Amino acid sequence: xxxxxxxxxxxxxxxxxxxxxxxxxxxxxxxxxxxxxxxxxxxxxxxxxxxxxxxxxxxxxxxxxxxxxxxxxxxxxxxxxxxxxxxxxxxxxxxxxxxxxxxxxxxxxxxxxxxxxxxxxxxxxxxxxxxxxxxxxxxxxxxxxxxxxxxxxxxx
Length: 156
Hints:
By secondary structure, this protein is an alpha+beta fold.
């Protein structure tokens, strides 16, 4: 019986782990970085991002494109060192609070403050929210791209 339980545990452990894969998530921390994270394979090229130990939403020096719990579509990417891996490149769904607002922040930072409001379709509510917080972002943001975007894009 003990051997049977051990074999059963090994099989279930392998099944769980066979669904888990390493994918990469884009992070902006002054430069673009691709961070390896653990994700659960859902179907084909769809993955759910598991916990990210270094993820800290309050750390404004690191802007993540995708968050723990996000379901993302991945594509194969060849990195500058010649290696390749699966890169999360499209958000399919999320249960994260204020996810679209966080996505807007990433788009502003990723474009270095150059994304235009007219190119941000579907973000009208988040842009209004963002511009309503302009004083906070102007005063507290350590990211020049956000300060630049707010000063150019928000009507005061």
